Amino acid sequence: MIEQQIKEAIRDIPDFPKPGIVFKDITPILKDPVLCDRVLDAFVEKLKGTRIDVIAGVESRGFLFGLSLACKLRVPFIPVRKAGKLPYTIKQKAYKLEYGTAIIEMHTDAFEPGQHVLIHDDLLATGGTVTAASELIQEMGGIVSGFAFVVGLGFLNGKERIAPISNNIVVLADY
């Protein structure tokens, strides 16, 4: 039911950010507070039994539901940011994209070693960014307890890429 509601709300934007790509725009979901609550409730239900000490949200759309989910679960929220966006002592991780490279970073005091971290982003495509976030978390002594996504693009095989890190992968609406 939640998958159908999400798919009905999502808007396809052809040729964005470049020709040949159909962008899945989740912003129409944000205009519907009832649907937003249902998305959060679905995450809570599907994550029952998962140890989550902290939620890490990947910039920037991972902040949208990541913070709300952390509040609902009564755990801290960690922003995983693009390089140059965090004001305190940071640890960085460079990774490859289809079209170049990128760097993500987190504050060095974001969590304690040994804590279980759920990684959240709005969309799972190839899994490159959340793989880099996972590596960064593991380098800092954290344990990746799973992944949570509003949308997944199954044809890009992101689940297969991140499953070795944690097979606890929640995708609410898969394409």
Number of continuous helical runs: 6
Radius of gyration: 15 Å
| Mean pLDDT reading | 97
Question: Beta-sheet strand percentage?
Answer: 25-35%
SSE arrangement, N to C: HEEHHEHEEEEHEHE
Oligomeric nature of the chains: single chain
Number of strands: 9
State the low-pLDDT regions, or none. Answer: none
Distance between the termini: 15 Å
Structural class: alpha/beta
Overall geometric form: globular
Strand arrangement, largest sheet? 5-6-4-3-7-8-9
Biggest sheet statistics: 7 strands, mixed
Helix content: 25-40%
Question: Please, could you describe this protein's structure?
Answer:
With 175 residues, the protein is of the alpha/beta class. Helices cover 31% and strands 34% of the residues. It contains 6 helices and 9 strands. The chain has helices at 2-9, 27-30, 33-46, 62-73, 128-139, 158-162, and strands at 11-14, 22-25, 54-58, 77-82, 90-97, 100-107, 116-124, 143-152, 169-174. The strands form 2 sheets. A 7-stranded mixed β-sheet has the order 5-6-4-3-7-8-9, sandwiched between helices. It has a two-stranded antiparallel ribbon with strand order 1-2. Helix 3 (33-46) packs across helix 4. The protein starts with a helix and ends with a strand.
Give a quick rundown of the structure.
It contains 6 helices and 9 strands, in the order αββααβαββββαβαβ.
What is the secondary structure topology, with strand pairs?
Elements: H1 2-9, E1 11-14, E2 22-25, H2 27-30, H3 33-46, E3 54-58, H4 62-73, E4 77-82, E5 90-97, E6 100-107, E7 116-124, H5 128-139, E8 143-152, H6 158-162, E9 169-174
Parallel strand pairs: 3-4, 3-7, 7-8, 8-9
Antiparallel strand pairs: 1-2, 4-6, 5-6
Helix pairs in contact: 3-4
